[in-house]
Automatic annotation (TrEMBL):
Membrane-spanning ranges: 75-99, 111-134, 198-219, 226-244, 295-315, 327-352, 372-394, 425-444, 450-471, 483-501, 507-525
Chief localization: membrane
Biological source species: Anopheles coluzzii (African malaria mosquito)
Protein name: Solute carrier family 12 member 9
Matching InterPro entries: AA-permease/SLC12A_dom, SLC12_C, SLC12A_fam
Positions of the UniProt region annotated as Disordered: 1-26
Length: 939
């Protein structure tokens, strides 16, 4: 309602005016559904088309899958990329290193741990991917649409980096295989190609550039290539199994770069029980490829896990899959099972045929012992090359998704502009450049640990997303993948969190800190609208917890010690009451703050098909954001303002968290000020001015009010009868917090705890007086207001002065003791003029006629009315004389006239006239009436 700076004036003095309740237009949202585009492959019937008018028609002969560029199935689009990524450099290059150092028992245990983590993470991925349409970006798309833009963007960025590092790892493994087979085989330096740190970087860069060319051709080319490469890798792996079973004992040379040992050969024994027995237990040594660093459980597991991180390779291709929701679960699970069986068999065969000396000193021993050594060379090159391809295309797709979502604003706009035929050329090139930087690290085992930690963080976020959405019990979370519960997500989350720190605590902590910094940065700078478009798990979790705690919050257990103001501010037009909205935000002291607005009209007469308050609600939310206040918004449609306010008082809040204090603007005739347009206003904005229409219109000069004086006074009476504390606010258009902060002239917050209409010596100690002291104390606690001094004015009637002087000091003393008991730091100021006013005794009974305490039903004499106004002007002068340096004044609000009475309407007018005279030309003033005790002197 009238939470504006409004006044009516006598003697033609300018005072604030209340606002009407105009009907304002709402914002319209429009958009075209992508349902059939996303799920086109699920329908056997032709895809619908949309005509220019926006109507959907069926029977179009166009293929929705082809038109969207989705051409890959389960095997080519998911199984092959996942299987190849999980083989990577591990299968031919590092399984021997793992078995030789960790022993068979620990190796099998580490594979089981790794695959348990992967299996539960895959369950989470399958649950999310079968709960809706998955678009480009894979895991990033899943996490961002579940956890929201902040966590989604940060985890997506780290997942992008994980793919970049994974690509560097695969290329390093590929280069290592090339050097082993075509470089110097011993210390003589003979070989087809030279070796050395920078030579290896050259080979890696060449491989990286070759991958760039393949990926630039497109995802379909990659899919066709991956199917062929997987066939080659499987054949090469089978040749390795056959060789273990058929090859006899032999000596295998030690690579020339291994300078940690002084022998040149080590023994391969073939299938022997003694060899298996010797390889069962751990035997950690030094890693000759990383400057002799000591190997331990963490290093071995880091290398192992880096080779099996490819479970997201299929999800990364989601933008090219015909049916992502079906292909991702089926393809990923089958690839995980296939690679697990291959690794377990390979580990057992290696432990049963190869001595630990050979395993620890020649990581590429599979070539020399193979019946057809060329097969191992081909297997190394194809497995690592395909993994690098998968990671490079995955990184580019994640980067493209980040750019399309504008997670980093215009910073990545070049990616969107650099897309050609659905292939993000610019993203591919940017990923290629970052891979080049990773290749400078050199050591494959070092890159492997970084890769493992980054992927584990992405897996942790995936499990967290699934766990959160499952805990919230969101009814729309209905994945068709049935082998998922919150237990699987929790185990996956716990496992990834623990193993991250097991692998390398420094890398793990660094990645988490980087993730948190990205979360904070995106929260501050990312467009806020994304969370609303995508949906954020934080909103679901907060709803779940808030509902639970609201049910636990019992109003029957309220205690005055823990009372706090819970405000309902009734606003007609926020344009004219911005300072008051901000002031009430300060006064709420962490309590509930609701901004209420009554829209006058008949629901049945509304031209729109919807309730107009629904359209306006988003505008009011935008207003709250602009004002930077912590408030809720409640709107209602009613036939008149009074009835609407009754609705708002009853329905605002929920459970035990409901407003206990109602705040209205004062009723007067002063011209309103538009704080959104005024040049010097800190609230100036053009956000609510669009297409020539001003949102939140207010009453202009000369326009009549929609609310009469009698209705206004009745609203005051309604609030008090509904047992709500009441504040009437006047002159708040004059409030300037910035001036208070920088101007030392404004020094006080004043409290006048006396009922001007019926003063008594006990006034400073009644419920109303203590309530206004409480509000003043709350304001005085805040930073801007803390520098101001709180003053309490002691006003005593002439009855005190007629008695002995001994009675004067006790009143002041009692007030001082009361303030100390309430822990309120305030100075007490006596008003000498008050007790000397000889007219007071004559006016006390007259003034009582205008309040709810009046027992008189007699008509009021004109002479008495005029004398009352003159007396109010005298009181007003006394207050004004002491308000030159006052920021805000709190005053006692008497109850309105009681109903029914023979002259009720006339009393309402006189009641408001007297309040107008009382508050004329004062600083921002709050007339306060409290209902219940709000202070406590007990511990």
């Amino acid at each position: 309602m009238i939470a504006q700076n409004n006044v009516r004036s006598t003697n033609n003095d300018p005072v604030e005016s209340s606002e009407s309740y105009p009907i304002t237009g709402g914002t319209n949202g429009a958009g075209t559904s992508r349902l059939f585009r996303q799920f086109g492959s699920l329908f056997s019937s032709p895809a619908p088309t949309t005509d220019p008018a926006g109507y959907v028609e069926f029977g179009s002969i166009s293929d929705p899958v082809a038109s969207s560029g989705r051409t890959l199935g389960t095997f080519a689009g998911v199984f092959c990329p996942v299987a190849l990524s999980m083989f990577s450099a591990l299968v031919f290059i590092r399984v021997g290193f793992i078995v030789g150092n960790a022993g068979l028992y620990v190796t099998l245990l580490q594979f089981i741990i790794a695959y348990v983590i992967l299996l539960f993470t895959v369950s989470s991925v399958c649950a999310i991917s079968t709960n809706g349409a998955v678009e480009g970006g894979g895991v990033y798309f899943m996490i961002s649409r579940t956890l929201g833009p902040e966590f989604g963007g940060s985890i997506g960025t780290l997942f992008f980096l994980a793919n970049v590092v994974g690509c560097g790892l695969a290329i390093s493994g590929c280069a290592e295989g090339i050097i082993q087979n075509f470089g110097p085989s011993d210390g003589t330096g003979s070989g087809s190609i030279p070796d050395g740190r920078w030579w290896r970087f050259l080979y890696c860069s060449s491989l990286n550039t070759l991958m760039l060319i393949v990926v630039l051709i497109g995802a379909e080319m990659f899919a066709k290539t991956s199917m062929m490469i997987l066939g080659v890798v499987v054949i090469c792996l089978l040749s390795t199994y056959v060789s273990f079973l058929t090859q006899g004992p032999m000596d295998v040379s030690i690579p020339h770069e291994n300078s940690l040992v002084n022998f040149t050969t080590a023994r391969y024994t073939g299938l022997q029980a003694d060899t298996l027995w010797s390889n069962l237990h751990t035997n950690y040594t030094k890693d000759y490829t990383s400057n002799g660093n000591q190997v331990n459980f963490a290093v071995v597991f880091g290398v192992l896990f880096s080779g099996v991180t490819g479970i997201m390779a299929g999800a990364n291709m989601s933008g090219e899959l015909k049916n992502p929701s079906k292909s991702i679960p089926a393809g990923t699970l089958s690839a995980v099972l296939f690679t697990f069986l291959c690794y377990m068999a390979l580990s057992v065969l290696i432990a049963a045929t190869t001595t630990s000396t050979l395993l620890q000193n020649n990581f590429l021993f599979l070539g020399p012992i193979n019946l057809w050594p060329t097969f191992v060379t081909i297997g190394i090159l194809t497995a690592t090359f395909s993994t690098g391809l998968s990671n490079l295309i995955g990184a580019s797709r994640v980067m493209e998704a980040l750019a399309k979502d504008r997670v980093f604003g215009p910073l990545m706009s070049f990616v969107v502009k650099g897309t050609y035929k659905n292939n993000p050329i610019a993203a591919v090139i940017a990923s290629w450049v970052l891979v080049e930087a990773i290749l400078l690290i050199g050591s494959l085992n070092t890159i492997a640990q970084i890769n493992s930690v980054l992927f584990m963080l992405a897996y942790l976020a995936t499990n967290l997303a699934c766990l959160g959405i499952e805990i919230t019990g969101a009814p729309n979370f209905r994945p068709t993948y049935k082998y998922f519960t919150w237990h699987t997500a929790f185990i996956g989350l716990l496992g990834t969190a623990i193993m991250m720190f097991v692998i390398n605590s420094i890398y793990a902590l660094s990645s988490i800190i980087l993730c948190l910094l990205l979360v904070i940065a995106l929260h501050l700078f990312s467009p806020a609208s994304q969370g609303a478009q995508w949906g954020s798990i934080s909103q679901a979790l907060m709803f779940h917890q808030v509902r639970k705690y609201l049910l636990m919050l019992d109003s029957r257990k309220d205690h005055v010690k823990f009372w706090r103001p819970q405000m309902l501010l009734l606003v007609s037009s926020p344009r004219s009451c911005c300072p008051l909205i901000h002031f009430v935000n300060d006064m709420k002291k962490g309590g509930l703050y609701v901004i209420g607005h009554v829209k006058v009209g008949e629901f049945a007469d509304n031209d729109s098909s919807n309730d107009p308050t629904i359209e306006e609600y988003t505008q009011w939310l935008s207003l709250v954001d602009h004002m930077k206040v912590k408030a809720f918004v409640e709107l209602t449609l009613s036939r008149n303002v009074r009835e609407g306010i009754q609705h708002l008082i009853r329905i605002s809040g929920m459970g035990a968290m409901k407003p206990n204090t109602t705040i209205l603007g004062f009723y007067d005739e002063e011209q309103s000020k538009d704080f959104f347009e005024h040049e010097d206003s800190p609230y100036k904005t053009s956000e609510f001015d669009g297409n020539g229409i001003k949102l939140f219109p207010y009453r202009k000069s000369g326009e009549s009010k929609s609310l009469g004086v009698v209705d206004y006074v009745r609203i005051i009476d309604d609030v008090l009868r509904m047992r709500k504390n009441l504040c009437l606010c006047r002159h708040f258009h004059r409030l300037d917090k910035q001036m208070i902060a920088r101007n030392n002239h404004i020094r006080y917050i004043d409290v006048w705890p006396v009922n001007i209409f019926e003063p008594k010596n006990e006034d400073p100690f009644d419920v109303v007086s203590q309530f206004m002291m409480q509000l003043a104390c709350i304001i005085n606690m805040l930073p801007v207001w803390k520098k101001l001094e709180l003053r309490v004015f002691l006003c005593e009637s002439e009855t005190v002065s007629e008695n002995s002087a001994a009675f004067e000091r006790p009143a002041e003393h009692r007030l001082d003791q009361r303030l100390k008991l309430l822990r309120i730091s305030a100075s007490i100021h006596k008003i000498p003029e008050w007790s000397k006013d000889i007219d007071f005794a004559k006016h006390r009974n007259i003034l009582k006629q205008f309040t709810g305490n009046s027992d008189s039903n007699q008509l009021m004499a004109e002479e008495n009315i005029n004398r009352s106004k003159l007396y109010m002007q005298r009181i007003n002068q006394i207050i004004r004389d002491r308000s030159n340096a006052t920021a805000v004044t709190f005053m006692y609000l008497p109850t309105p006239p009681a109903t029914p009475s023979v002259d009720y309407k006339e009393k309402c007018h006189h009641y408001l006239d007297l309040l107008t005279e009382l508050t004329f030309d004062l600083p921002p003033t709050i007339l306060v009436h409290g209902i219940d005790a709000v202070t406590s002197t007990t511990l």
